[in-house]
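Minutes, project huddle
Topic: does the predicted pose make sense with zinc ion bound?
PN asked that the exact inputs be recorded in the minutes so nobody has to dig through chat later. Recorded below.
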Amino acid sequence: MHELGIANSVLEAVQTEAARHPGAVVRKVAVTVGELAGVDPESLAFSFEALTTGTEWQHLILEIQTRPRMHRCPACGLDFRVVDYQFACPECGASKTECTGGDELELAYLEMEEP
Ligand SMILES: [Zn+2]
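Predicted holo structure (tokens), as shared on screen:
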């Protein structure tokens, strides 16, 4: 399962960061997942839980921030959210617009408690 690999990378990143702050406790990790990233947030959450249950990381909270698919219209400069595959500009009607976001898959932040 694809999401299990991602959950694993997230956990590895947390472990690396935790190793840099001896004694600190990581409470929360947030990841940004774009609509186009091909990741199912629910199965990512499930995979993460499966991975951490029964380990020292089982109290770590995973926050998944989803990002919509965004397009920009080169004709009028409007940034808009794509809904139901409507790629035409809602402002001027231009049919050729550029994808500017929604394929993110990255670590957003970590929440740590220093001793
Ligand atoms: Zn436009």
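Observations noted during the meeting:
- Residues 66 and 84 are 16 Å apart (CA to CA).
- The domain at 2-68+101-113 is CATH 3.30.2320.50 (hypothetical protein PF0899 fold).
No decisions taken; revisit at the next huddle.
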